[in-house]
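Writing this down once: the sequence line spells out the residues, with the fold written below as integer tokens. I am pasting one below:
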Amino acid sequence: MARKNFVCEWTPKSFILTVVIATVLFNECFIYIIQSFRWPDIGIADYRNYEEEQVILLVSDPQLQGYQMEPPFPIGSFSRWDIDRYLTRTFGLVYHHVKPDIILFLGDLIDEGSTAVDEEYHYAYQRFIDVFSAAEYTKKIYIPGDNDIGGEGRDFRTQKKVDRFVKNFENITGVSTFGFIDYIKNPEDMVWVVRPRKASPVHVLVSHFSVLVRDKMRVNPILQQVRPHLIFSGHWHKANVFLCNDCMKDDDSSWSVKQRNIEDMKGWMVTNLTEKPFSITEIMVPTCSYRMGVPNMGYGVAIIRKNGELSYTVLWTPERYKMLYGYLVAICVCLLVCLASRWLRKR
């Protein structure tokens, strides 16, 4: 019986089809899986007791794109769809990797939350809920940013904006107690009204804007009132750590705040929050959105134990713009193949 030889012949159509399928699979599937393999292991059992140690997932500046500042249909619709899909995928992977006890949203939740009309705000809020639906049954704390209620430049904060945020999310101030930690929200708005429990071993101040970079005369009354062991902030869209060894001293001397860029963080940063009574650590969490114009996006993860031990890392997510450029390159290659094929046929 004669043996048939099967030879795979590449035609322009088969080559283009292969390039398209490979590009889509890599950009929409494989790149997310590859990136998740680079994340450090959480190292805590699923049956942990949040009364003794807590795993905190930090989401900063998602800024879901709105309807006023985006291009008209179809570009605006596609850009909103793509950023929503990117955040849904990255958050879902991070959430299942971390299995957090609590999630802190550090402000600027909706890009046009301060300027949107009620109908636009309603649609954006529903998209926000859908994007982070993987954590539907996990405890959350929401902090408003300037994009949510105003407060930066000429975008003034008004009571109407605050009321709309409160109606859809939660109060912008107060103390939320979870396990052994008191989470103090936006202390500048309520510093003389609400205090954390003295019995709580750990006080965590949660603010959209950075605290330690401000003038001491402005923030020292807040720090003396709240007595935080740790501060989480966002707004800059970058990953930083600020350390002040004498910020809790009640005097008029100037303080020295050391800033450390952690954009290249791959492992865990470990410290103890209660060993030095006059020291404060502030962790600035990077944005999780690729639309913010920064090269590195990610989610912060903090593990706090009752004895004051803190472990912190950033789970970096894929650079979406590089993936979109990859589509552009693939389109150019396919066009060149088509043109070359037509030219050869004419020859």
